[in-house]
Amino acid sequence: MSGTKPDILWAPHQVDRFVVCDSELSLYHVESTVNSELKAGSLRLSEDSAATLLSINSDTPYMKCVAWYLNYDPECLLAVGQANGRVVLTSLGQDHNSKFKDLIGKEFVPKHARQCNTLAWNPLDSNWLAAGLDKHRADFSVLIWDICSKYTPDIVPMEKVRLSAGETETTLLVTKPLYELGQNDACLSLCWLPRDQKLLLAGMHRNLAIFDLRNTSQKMFVNTKAVQGVTVDPYFHDRVASFYEGQVAIWDLRKFEKPVLTLTEQPKPLTKVAWCPTRTGLLATLTRDSNIIRLYDMQHTPTPIGDETEPTIIERSVQPCDNYIASFAWHPTSQNRMIVVTPNRTMSDFTVFERISLAWSPITSLMWACGRHLYECAEEENDNSLEKDIATKMRLRALSRYGLDTEQVWRNHILAGNEDPQLKSLWYTLHFMKQYTEDMDQKSPGNKGSLVYAGIKSIVKSSLGTVESSRHNWSSLDKQSDIQNLNEERILALQLCGWIKKGTDVDVGPFLNSLVQEGEWERAAAVALFNLDIRRAIQILNEGASSEKGDLNLNVVAMALSGYTDEKNSLWREMCSTLRLQLNNPYLCVMFAFLTSETGSYDGVLYENKVAVRDRVAFACKFLSDSQLNRYIEKLTNEMKEAGNLEGILLTGLTKDGVDLMESYVDRTGDVQTASYCMLQGSPLDVLKDERVQYWIENYRNLLDAWRFWHKRAEFDIHRSKLDPSSKPLAQVFVSCNFCGKSISYSCSTVPHQGRGFSQYGVSGSPTKSKVTSCPGCRKPLPRCALCLINMGTPVSSCPGGSKSDEKVDLSKDKKLAQFNNWFTWCHNCRHGGHAGHMLSWFRDHAECPVSACTCKCMQLDTTGNLVPAETVQP
Amino acid sequence: MFVARHIPADHKDLIHDVSFDFHGRRMATCSSDQSVKVWDKSESGDWHCTASWKTHSGSVWRVTWAHPEFGQVLASCSFDRTAAVWEEIVGESNDKLRGQSHWVKRTTLVDSRTSVTDVKFAPKHMGLMLATCSADGIVRIYEAPDVMNLSQWSLQHEISCKLSCSCISWNPSSSRAHSPMIAVGSDDSSPNAMAKVQIFEYNENTRKYAKAETLMTVTDPVHDIAFAPNLGRSFHILAIATKDVRIFTLKPVRKELTSSGGPTKFEIHIVAQFDNHNSQVWRVSWNITGTVLASSGDDGCVRLWKANYMDNWKCTGILKGNGSPVNGNSQQGNSNPSLGSNIPNLQNSLNGSSSGRKHS
After folding, report:
1. Which chain A residue has its CA at the smallest distance from B353's CA?
2. Rounded to whole angstroms, how far apart are CA atoms B294 and A366?
3. pTM of the shown model
């Protein structure tokens, strides 16, 4: 420690105390601030800890190194090595009156004055203190003092007295060390070996030496430059680290000839290397002028015994603060905790985290392992729905039977949570498509029906060049506009857009009414206007302004609207065309765009992206000529496809184009659920067989399986097979007669329905009731149930002795379960079986097969059999 | 909002990997204490350790589940240079009564001459296949030709990567349009700036794996790699844990345009790169739909990443490794999606977590 650069030490036993030493010693107390405010005068160390200064000791000038006494008592005894080689025992004023009082102030003086480089307390013989000194001619450089030595020299050499000028209590001087080692050498670092209390490892001038105090004449040594900061791994007593310049060497004392490992060289010289005391194989290193502590996680280092293995070392770095770090200290007991001090004595307390490994479970909970601990983190259900991930959304939607309402198709968007305007548009589109397909089929069974599902793009294409425009009078205005004569296709398009209802009536009235009812005043007004009914539009706006939720500004808009004039250069026109851009509502904006537009150019309406696609398309169908319309639809379709916007399904329908669109929707959102259900709504077979569609369907089924939504998966499969009969799985199990080998399935189909479910299936089987217990082919009896010993095919009686309450629950839960009780079941392993109901109740209490002497654990063989479907668990 | 809960793991040393089965009802952990533990989730949602056994004679790096279609099967890999396949059996003993299950070793794969660093089962549609990678730079692909006999595995492919391998990831896509594909990451830390991620693709004609791509921009050691589950996307997403979190998209160039038979060409884009961990990133993991990525880094935090509708990836949550909330307020990290981009400075995220660690 050169006066400017502080060092830091944790107390070995009082784990909430540490000392910072530079020119003086300052003792701090660490407190947690989790549940309390920061106290006045304390220093913040981290988010939840702070330090209070307890005492300062400036008795010992010229400090070079400090070591904390390792015993419990006295608590705050420190040995300080000074620049003149003296070692002074000092205390931080906690217990002056203890029996160790006489230790404090004791000085240990070497023969010749030179810098004291290092101090080390013996971990076992707690009174032994080793001091490493610089070289002085042929003098010894490693001195081991016994601090309890009562020995005071008879004659204090004159030299010493001079050196310790100012020191009055000469009686506390000790000049005779217990051992003197390392003659004619310098000692830079020291550590006691935990293997034996008499072994001392020293980093000497150009070698590492192990001194054995039992025989001081001998030492083991190895020549190396890496002699600084020797330190023993507390978890692996043969592993030692030392450093030189930027390089750390790891030694194995059993094979001391050369380092077993050297770590990657650092560009700057190292200042401190320390093993973590709370975790195996973690070495922290610090270089000069750096704000990074580099950590080496030694999972495996080579050992001299056993085979040659390559080291597994994971290098990490932590940056506890922005300033350079002067020194650091591991906390003796808190796991991986460390405190660092900067040159200007700011301190920071932090924990080095272990590498975290993590995994997502399929039901969006995250599990991670940090060190030896496991943490699970689940997404809370009551989360704001907008924040939810698509995985959670799909799971909740599957539970609410999303996509399965095939009658009121539009309702599916409500099942989806009624939150996504695109889904709303999609399901309304699909609803109209279904409705008009049925309509078409009724009118003219044959070709047209499929056209509806092909989308407006195809519908418009099919009528190319058949439409002429005509001038239409505005109601209540003496204005005329070019409006296309609506042919059958355009009417269909308008119907799909939702503007007009079923039938040949081209009246938008009902649509307007429904919009008004939902409070979409602006939209209703715009639609009214596009149908050349400005009076109705104004009326709707007024209505909106006066309603509770409405906006009073709508009156102003209505006022502006009523001032409409057809004159080309009027002030009204000029102002409206500029001011309309400031309107926030897109529908209000397009109304003025429409009124101020030149005849035949409606770009202001057609390309206003905030207006729903269905309204823009309907508008285009009304006002654009065939070629214009075609071009517009084409352009819009491509735009929608690019963006994966589900509103575009209106244009593409469930065609290849639709699959393209859906592909970019899936790319964007990952929502294969909507994609699957949408495509299963009415796609022609060739579209359904598209690889991408099949892939979505497969993946969605897989997803349901992973969530254990097996019932939902089955429902989905049924739904799918309605449109794609080829996807219907073949029968997986046949029951064949033991004697003739023929399938008994024909008669078997009636077997389960003998009970109450009987009549509803219309099977008049009562005369054959007794016959089904035998094979329909050879009339031999069917096998017996292992439990009731009655031939299969008989209705099951409620299980005797079984838990009756359970049975009742089963029956009341669903009548179908009662029929299932009659089914054949058998174990694939031991071939024993019987009535499903009997078997289930048997295995509720037993692990082994009910047939005597059969030890087969039938039920446990199928481990997935233990998995209950998740739907029953879900709310 | 995310709430973390501590589960007493009772491993005697560091846990290196956590893995869920297909349904998320079972979990396996492996540790430096050379053991694997299997955990089952009870109806109440608590995890119970139902098996714990010594699997290897060295640290167990990774553990992974096979699809339940193949039974209850685990694979583990270790520093002891082997990988092993384990199967749960219905024991003759009354293990089940004590709530314990019994796992037997079906095979030991001993081909590697160095530490086996990762093991992964191939996607289900490829059959029962297993890939391992090792520190000597070789990826090995094994197959069990008979799924009923887990003791026979044949080494089908050996791919040399030239660099010490640290992690592998199968492309999970089961689309017929996508050939089997495996990405390999290397943690080689030598100063040469070689690309650390290679992607190999199976070629139907040559019946071999050939290099399809090398991510030239990734030159720092890679610690983990993960293809996102692909539920129907037309492209692949690959997350990489290196000195930062990176997300790449690989868009196959349509087959018709490329010459048939050759490897698929990809348009590769880096769509996100986050250094919020401010240090090495150790693991990345995708959720079931491949829409949320979780990463863990040396700052001791777990971060969640998610793309918005504009395909901009953002941090949507930060969790401390010890389960304590970041800055005492985890809700903030979640509701404010922009928080991820201006993470509190490093000091905050490193500090102050000591009080949360009860065990030492």
Report:
1. A351
2. 8
3. 0.82
